[in-house]
Amino acid sequence: MNPPVAFAVTDLCDQHGDQVAVAAPVFRSFGALARFAGPVATVRCFEDNSQVRARLEEPGRGHVLVVDGAGSLRCALVGGMLGELAVTNGWSGVVVNGCVRDTLELARCATGILALAANPRRSEKRGDGERDVAVAFAGVQFSPGDFVYADADGLIVSRGPLPP
């Protein structure tokens, strides 16, 4: 079940405060959609986006890909081509604990993309990384099957879908 498109994170916090975790306000928005939501899928990697690409090549079915890049600011884990893959394959959004690049291209991608910063350097391609594991950053934990809700006011995580 995918959450409704018409929601406000502030309203969800007011209505379900004890059921949500609020991420620290560390993200910048890079995608064309400021508001997105969906069930969580995860990748953990460090300066190697091989698993990010592999995941975005799969059907997203409205999920949000949460990428824990350990907060590295030394290279980008998502760029224009991966942004297009996210749109083409039906991902609701991508949240990166790390950097993105090709920001002008990402701004045209009809999906939500949050990251810490932009960096023009591409990542390594070693095939390293883990999928479908719990990750924690920005003061919250993201587990596969949790739900992310994000808009211009912030990002929240719940253990299941929230009624509007």
What features would you highlight for this structure?
4 helices; Glucose Oxidase, domain 1; two-stranded antiparallel sheet; ten-stranded mixed sheet; 164 residues; alpha/beta
List the helices and strands and how they pair.
Elements: H1 9-16, E1 20-22, E2 28-29, E3 36-44, H2 50-56, E4 64-68, E5 76-78, H3 80-88, E6 93-100, H4 103-106, E7 112-118, E8 130-131, E9 135-137, E10 140-142, E11 147-151, E12 154-158
Describe this structure in words.
The strands form two sheets. Strands 1, 2, 3, 4, 5, 6, 7, 8, 11 and 12 form a ten-stranded mixed β-sheet that branches. A two-stranded antiparallel ribbon has the order 9-10. Strand 6 (93-100), helix 4 and strand 7 (112-118) form a beta-alpha-beta unit. Helix content is 17%, strand content 34%. It has helices spanning 9-16, 50-56, 80-88, 103-106; strands at 20-22, 28-29, 36-44, 64-68, 76-78, 93-100, 112-118, 130-131, 135-137, 140-142, 147-151, 154-158. It has a single domain (9-157), classed as Glucose Oxidase, domain 1 (3-Layer(bba) Sandwich), CATH 3.50.30.40. It has 164 residues and is an alpha/beta fold. The model has no long low-confidence stretch (mean pLDDT 95).
